C-alpha cells in the first residue's frame, strides 16, 4: 500500500473531542458487560497491542476515495455480513480475496477505471440487532451481537457479553490482515496471471466464457504494454487492498484510536475505512460523536427514513471542512423505495455543494423471509437497486462512485436467483450465514458484470 501522491487539504481538529468523548452521548446497540473492571482491563490491554493498520495506509485510501468522488476511480467494498472466529482460515480468506479480485478485474476491464478495493473483513465481528433479547421456546436470552461480544449458541453462558472476546477479535483480525498482506505482496494479485484467481465455478458457470474472455483480454493488454516498454511492468504485480468494518462496539474502537508520530490528530488503527450503521447514526448519538474526531475516511449508511435536512446536518458534523475523501454516503433504500427516496437526498447534497462519495448498498434494503423460514435476498432486487441507482444519479447530475456488498468466496446458497436461478428449495443446501444472506462467488461476479453493462449504457464510447 503506497503513500498518497499529494497531500490532502488541511482540516481543523474537532472541538472538545477525545477518543472517549462518546461516553457522554446516548450509545445504542451497546452490550451490557457484567464486570466493568474486566472491561477496563481489556481496553488497557488493547491499547498496548500493535495497531492493525498504519496512518499512511489510511491517508493513501483517503486520497483514492477523493479521486473516486471526482469520477477517476470506482469503489468496490465487499465481504462477509459478520466474520466469526471459526472461519479465520487460509482457504476462506484466500477465496474471499479471490472473488474481490475477480470482481475488480471485471470492473477495471469494463469501466476503464482504477478500482479501490476494500474488504469487509479483518474486524467485521460486531452486528447490530433489532432487539436486545431473543426468545426461544419461552426462554429469553441476550441477543447474539457477533463473536466480538458473545457466542451464537442459545445458552445463558454463551450469550453473556465477554470483554475478552475483543482481544480474540484483535488477534483474528491481525491474522487475517497478515495473511492478506502476504498474499498481495507475494504476487497473488499479479495481473500477469489473473487466471490464478479462478475458483471452482469457472468451468461450469454460465458466466465462464465471458469471464475467461476478460482474463484473456487483460493478459493480452499487459503483454502489449510490456512489448512497447521493452520490460516487465512491475507495478502490475500487486494491488492496494484495504479493510473496513462497522465501528459498532465503541469500547473496542476507542482502545484502537491513537496518535502517531509526525501526524496530527487521531486515527482508528483497527481498520482503514470504518462506517456507522443506520441504527446508530443519530446526530446526538455516541457513534456520531466518535466518528467526528477520527482522521480515517468514514462512511454512513443512509436508509429510506432519512430526510434531506437530517442528512445535511449529519454531514455538517462529520465533515465540517468538506475534506476530499473524508465522507462516503452508503444509500440502502431497497429496490421498491430507491426511486422515491434517493432523489431528494441527492438534490439536497448537490444543492449545498457537499463533497461526498455516493455508494450503493443493494443488499440491506432487500432482505426478506421465505415461507420455509430463511432470511434471504432476491438477486433480481439487488440488480434492480443497483441499476436504478445508476439511473437516478445520472438524472440528478451526481455520480454513483461505488458499491457495498455482502458476499463470500464460498459456494453458499443464501440469495435467491442469479445465473443458476437458485430457488427457496436451494437455500437449505448450503445456507451458512449466522446473520445475513450473502451473494455467493458466482452471484458476486454476475453483479460486477451488470455494473459494467450499466456503466457502459450510461457512458457510451465516443466515436471519432
From TrEMBL:
Keyword entries, A-Z: Transferase
A Pfam match: DAHP_synth_2
Catalytic activity: D-erythrose 4-phosphate + phosphoenolpyruvate + H2O = 7-phospho-2-dehydro-3-deoxy-D-arabino-heptonate + phosphate
Molecular function terms, GO-annotated: 3-deoxy-7-phosphoheptulonate synthase activity
InterPro entries: Aldolase_TIM, DAHP_synth_2
Enzyme Commission number(s) of this protein: 2.5.1.54
PANTHER family, per database record: PHOSPHO-2-DEHYDRO-3-DEOXYHEPTONATE ALDOLASE (PTHR21337:SF0), PHOSPHO-2-DEHYDRO-3-DEOXYHEPTONATE ALDOLASE 1, 2 (PTHR21337)
UniProt record similarity statement: Belongs to the class-II DAHP synthase family.
Listed name of the protein: Phospho-2-dehydro-3-deoxyheptonate aldolase
